[in-house]
Amino acid sequence: MRTAASTPDARRPPYVPSQDAGLRGALDRVVSRAVDARWWTAALVIAALLAAAWGVVQAAGGTRSGTPHLFYLPIILAALPFGIRGATGTAVVAAVLCGPLMPLDSVSNEPQALTGMIVRATMFLGVAALAGLCLSLRRRVDNERVAHELREMIVGPESPSLVLDAGLVPLVGEVLRSRSFHPVFQPIYSLDDGRLLAVEALTRFDTEPRRTPDLWFAAAEQAGLGAELEMAAIEAALDAARSLPPGVGLSLNASPATLAHPRLHELLVSRGSEGVILELTEHAAIRDYELLSGPLTALREAGVSIAVDDAGAGFSSLQHIVQLSPDIIKLDISLTQDVCSSPVRQALGGALIEFVHRTGAQLVVEGIEEEDDLRQWCELGADAVQGFLVGRPASLPAAPTCSLISDALTAPHPAEHRARADLAAPIDR
């Protein structure tokens, strides 16, 4: 970027459990697993709890003790996978077990009073109704929140289009001649072990008026010098990145016109293209992908990896991914932030990671600024991270490791983390 295990019930969307630490997160995960449990597994567990409760009540002296309250546990548990009908059925079974199937109190050997049986049965049914109602309300609230977030992500607030600063257009030529810009580098770290995988080269302009890089590049495009300015920025980044240690990649931004520029291949080969990553922004329109086929093949043969930047910010990224078969996909900030509090983003993030890995590519999450988001993407299985939290754009050298990532790698089953390849290494296709 130039700028800073079972099949869920088909009648309802699957509930995405919270990944928060603490009691609430643990309860959410327990509820999620119970809801998605196979019906026969849940039925066996509930039957076992009912039998255990009956045995404990009988051994404790019968219904005159407080042990019949143990039957509330299987009643409430039955509501999770089976709803109010399952809870009601379990309550009826519990009433029978505590009544006709336990007619005598063990201590007095006297018959139970009919009123006591009725009161217990009423209490069991009341708890079943309350548990089923609470769970139904919880699911409805969750579904409404998911639907609301999904509408926001699909429709979303209308993004302001980039307004061209016409005053910059006549200045672009002098900026090119005087090289009034310099590169800075933002680190990209592995989410597997926190080591430095690559740095992305970003351009900063040193001339008046002070404007953001996207405005300068837009002005260069308007002046017919877009590819020339990008080539100059790439050349400056290659010069400044000579000190990168072996195994650390250099990520460069390029528009489709620059990718097809004959000088690009020559420049990269002459400076050493192994470990170079060319990022194609999602916002860059490509009218004919066939025209890029030859240049991309030549670049890949020279050891260059291809990345799609800002994936998820619009429909163009899907076309880029399908048509270009990128080695790396960088997920847009609109999908990577606030992922802990959003079931939609968690579900979408997990699906995107699975999709990217199935294509043989690697996924980088951009714009990470909060530790909670960092931990969440570690758990989801993303490959690498970039953002102000782990490193701001600056001069080289970049820190070789990120301690924040090492601290975030506290997953309960570390053996499930798959080995991730180096971003700088090209992927055979």
List keywords for this structure.
about 425 residues; alpha/beta; TIM Barrel; 2 domains; eight-stranded mixed beta barrel; 8 strands; about 50% helix; elongated; disordered N terminus; disordered C terminus
Blueprint (SSEs and pairs):
Blueprint: H1 23-35, H2 39-59, H3 72-98, H4 114-154, H5 172-178, E1 181-190, E2 196-205, H6 213-222, H7 226-240, E3 249-253, H8 256-259, H9 262-271, E4 276-281, H10 290-301, E5 305-311, H11 316-324, E6 328-331, H12 333-336, H13 343-358, E7 362-365, H14 371-380, E8 384-385, H15 403-408
Helix pairs in contact: 2-3, 3-4, 6-7, 7-9
Distance between the termini: 25 Å
Helix content: 40-55%
Secondary structural class: alpha/beta
Q: What is the helix tally?
A: 15
Order of helices and strands: HHHHHEEHHEHHEHEHEHHEHEH
CATH architecture of the largest domain: Alpha-Beta Barrel
Low-confidence stretches: 1-21, 411-422, 424-429
Shape verdict: elongated
Instruction: Identify the CATH class of the largest domain.
Output: Alpha Beta
Cα-atom radius of gyration: 30 Å
